Amino acid sequence: MPPENLRIGVFVCDCGSNIAGAVDTQALRAYAENLPGVAVAVRNKYTCADPGQQEIQRAIYEHNLNRVVVASCSPTSYEAIFRQCIEGAGLNPYLLEMANIREHCSWVTPGDREAATRKAKDIVKVAVARAHWLYPQDEEQIPVTDAAMVIGGGVAGIQAALDLADAGHKVYLVEKKASIGGIMAQLDKVYPDIECSI
Ligand code: SF4
Description:
By secondary structure, the chain is of the alpha/beta class. The chain has two domains: about 10-130, Rossmann fold; about 145-195, no CATH class. The chain has seven helices and eight strands; from the N terminus they run βααβαβαβααβαβββ. The strands form three sheets. A four-stranded parallel β-sheet has the order 2-1-3-4, with helices on both faces. A two-stranded parallel ribbon has the order 5-6. The protein starts with 7 loop residues before the first strand and ends with a strand. It binds iron/sulfur cluster. Iron/sulfur cluster (SF4) binds next to helix 1 and helix 4.
């Protein structure tokens, strides 16, 4: 069960006009503030910039937050930065959830502010619900054997094995048939250059 003393902070990013141009971020902030478990919701112009990160850290201290939701861009862009940010304010870095209201909303719902805002609210609502179930995680370093196994010696498997080997890893290429090459090896010539397939 989620802890009873949930204090979630939601940080809604404008991304300049990238998000705010399509989504009513003021309305989104107000909506987020009333979601279950949310202690505070803040709107930033650029959340990943230093002032935005400082605002997150300040809110963690001032509101005694124990979960953070950042409603901004794809986690592939800044999730690592926001993890560092909340860790800098004393929270476990895994007590962070991202709501992607840019690639999943503002950029793909142009010209209909009402629909985009409604969708952004749903995305944030889901992220806040997920945040209820976040728990602190520890990172461990475990020694591994520096080798990879590629299963299947077709064209994709051969290329994967070559790429891994080029990257300096030992590779085991496993193929159930007597020879590698897969379907490609059964062809005579390949289009468009009519070259030998092997
Ligand atoms: S956090 Fe993402 S959405 Fe917000 S300003 Fe930075 S790049 Fe834009």
